[in-house]
Specification:
By secondary structure, the chain is α/β, with parallel strands linked by helices. About 40% of the residues lie in helices and about 15% in strands. The longest helix is centred in the middle third of the chain and has 17 residues.
């Protein structure tokens, strides 16, 4: 089992680098960050992972830009993998976005994971001038463009939303054949996108039982598409909170699938995930205090990965 952790909700660069360096020193596989450009002042009822569709962050809470943050932290680490969980594909020009990921992969010596999603917040799409209703089709085309630009010497593409030819894009990513693509989302459509484009299925805010129930569909669809389902990594991202560390949960709304329990319950949950076929677990935190987040990963390293 491999473990990754989301960077804490902080805009203090030194704190974020301290967390990343500590996660690296503890031997964890990866660090991650999400993606929002703007948040609506009126709130939302569209968030897929709460009963009422509310989102836990207020509109005036700072949210660092994904690629900028990953680049900043990457410069202060050496071995830990750097991933987006997830970058919303339609928000950015596909050629510029592919160039950003390729550049970061080169500068980090091949440590990048390109976690992708289609997005859910309609107001954000509206503000960025991106058609919300076409976000799935755009995402699929953007992934086609990424792979084309990352692997072909003379890339060209004629699509519904974007077309180009007569160009070259260098440097190519260090990782071959291309940067790993981890597809977020918990629906069957996300699974089909994973089979078509991805190296991993990376659902969020779900229980291990939910993932287990979706795996037969993934395997069947992969077989029909001519892909070996065993080559697709199964990764699950959830919130983590140890109830026996004496630390309060602060500033968060409870979302589905969170792992909230004692150390022994977390250990059992990891064991259960492994039995299901999940081979990577990513956690974020139910506290915004960076020191508390560091304490959690230190406890996880001492008691869960080395019980």
């Amino acid at each position: 089992m491999r473990f990754g952790f989301a960077l804490p909700n902080s805009i203090d660069g030194e704190e974020l680098c301290y967390f990343a360096q500590r996660a690296e020193a503890l031997g964890f596989e990866s660090i991650w960050t999400g993606d929002h450009i703007v948040l609506p002042t009126a709130g939302t009822d569209q968030y897929p992972y709460t009963a009422d569709g509310s989102f836990s962050r207020s509109a005036d809470e700072p949210f660092l830009e994904t690629m900028t943050l990953l680049s900043y932290v990457a410069a202060r680490t050496r071995t830990i993998r750097i991933g987006s969980t997830v970058v919303i594909l339609p928000y950015r020009n596909p050629i510029v976005q592919a160039k950003m990921f390729a550049s970061l992969d080169v500068l980090t010596g091949g440590r990048v994971i390109c976690g992708v999603g289609v997005g859910w917040l309609e107001k954000e799409f509206e503000t960025l001038g991106v058609p919300y209703a076409r976000r799935g089709a755009m995402s699929d085309e953007w992934l086609t463009i990424f792979k084309c630009l990352w692997t072909e010497e003379y890339p060209s593409h004629q699509g519904e939303f974007y077309s180009f030819d007569g160009i070259q894009l260098y440097p190519k990513p260090v990782q071959k054949p291309h940067i790993p693509i981890w597809v977020g989302g918990h629906t069957r459509r996300a699974i089909r996108r994973t089979v078509a484009f991805g190296d991993a299925w990376h659902p969020t805010r779900q229980t291990p039982e939910y993932v287990e129930g979706m795996l037969p569909y993934l395997r069947r669809y992969a077989d029909e598409a001519g892909r070996d389902p065993d080559e697709i990594t199964i990764s699950l991202k959830r919130s983590l909170h140890f109830t026996d560390l004496g630390m309060p949960e602060t500033g968060t709304v409870r979302t589905g699938g969170a792992m909230i329990g004692t150390t022994s319950e977390v250990i059992e949950d990891v064991r259960r995930c492994s039995q299901i076929g999940i081979s990577q677990l990513t956690y974020d935190f139910r506290t915004r205090d960076v020191e508390a987040c560091v304490r959690i990963i230190e406890h996880f390293a001492a008691e869960v990965t080395e019980p």
